[in-house]
Amino acid sequence: MGEDKKKLSPEIKEKLKKSFNEGWRKDLRKSLPAKERMKMTRQDMPERKPFQRNKDFEEVNQGLNKQAAVKEAMRCLDCANPQCVRGCPVGIDIPSFIKLIEKEKFLESAQKIKETNSLPAVCGRVCPQETQCEELCNLRKATGKPVAIGNLERFISDYERGKGKIHIPKIPVSTGHKVAVIGSGPGGLTVAGELAKKGHQVTVFEALHVPGGVLAYGIPEFRLPNYILDAEVDYLKKLGVEFKMNIVVGMTKSIQDLKKEGYKAIYIGTGAGLPRFMDIPGENLIGIYSANEYLTRVNLMGANQFPEYDTPVFLGKKAVVLGGGNVAMDSVRTAQRLGAKEATIVYRRSRKEMPARVEEVHHAEEEGIEFHFLTNPVRYISDKNNRVKAMECIKMELGEPDSSGRRRPIPIEGSEFIMEVDLVVVSIGNSPNPLIGKVTPGLKIGKWGNVEVDWDTMATSLEGVYAGGDIVRGGATVILAMGDARVAAREMHKYLTA
Predict the structure, then answer these.
(1) Ordered structural domains, the chain, with CATH
(2) pLDDT tens figures, 130-150
């Protein structure tokens, strides 16, 4: 649904030109020639040991220290034509924030990032930099090892928070315009921050009892600790953003109600919370969860601490997760941490086609997760209590590429076999949240349930209403949702001030 933008906006081009012409950057470039920088070793992120970390929910990656961060920043070639920025959906001035690290101007570096990204601690942890900014890094093309842009982004945001010196930009005099943001996921938080910095009065409406959307319910603490997300939300509150919890727009309120309440511009960022299932026999048995429900119970409702918290989750001993994306990796690693003796990924394609981040697959393998590739379930088998006890699977082979560009999996006749399981988590994708589309007259909805937009502006078919992220794209990434939100915020500001 729409092509990812790779062109730089005129605003970002001008910022890059200005930063490149700053004297200190020229001096740094002369101080260590590119040939010397290319010889430097990439600084690896310290990690907790696999068979210690797979028993708890403490964060796996430990972050770079100051010395390692400065060394890594020195690897940046300070390119005259930095390709890395083209790979960043939110247009961070990557060369400048990295060069500020090299000069050990850490707080200034944090300010530079936050010019275009209000959630750097989140992005530094969960964004797929290896397929975005780092993929286009000129150093990668030259040596095969790009600058660790994501690790440096994480370092600098953690440094600023650790020092307790969070920079709050000067907010202009209020414009008097009210903006409603529906959903507090990465897109909603981004729109809120961008428009608050322009002087607009922003209110975020969230259906759940805590802000963060998929960042709160969908990503385990061993990848994104709650206190990190809380700090990012607190920053937005300091910008003047108001959060209203437990309000389901589409039920508690409608978009029409928001307009009557004086909200001149509205952003829909309700995500893709409708799980998909395979529609095979036995799918309603006890012990079979969608990944959304499973992760929400643990991440948001404390099921791993039951009965201290009220919401339980079944603690399987033979856990299987269906799928090959990041959500599948999160689910299977969660099941293992909850005590599964066997935790297995079942994926219908080969390892090569898995959409999960390389790092996430690597961590899962280190922690003892098993992988069954080219395998697909065809039915579930119950015990006498209507609980799942086994799963019949069939082996697959790869045929011609399908619409996704990946080779289509084809069943191998006669290859069926039985796998014993007592917990199944289905992680084969999500569809856009259908609620608002069903109750909002005039809002154009696509055939897959997505809100249709003008990709240049993120405007919907309703005047003053914009949308972005998973509600538009279907299941995508945090940073793509933030990129959509940046475009929407720019256009909403134009609309409000026209």
Answers:
(1) 10-163 (1.10.1060.10), 178-273+431-497 (3.50.50.60), 277-428 (3.50.50.60)
(2) 999 999 999 999 999 999 999
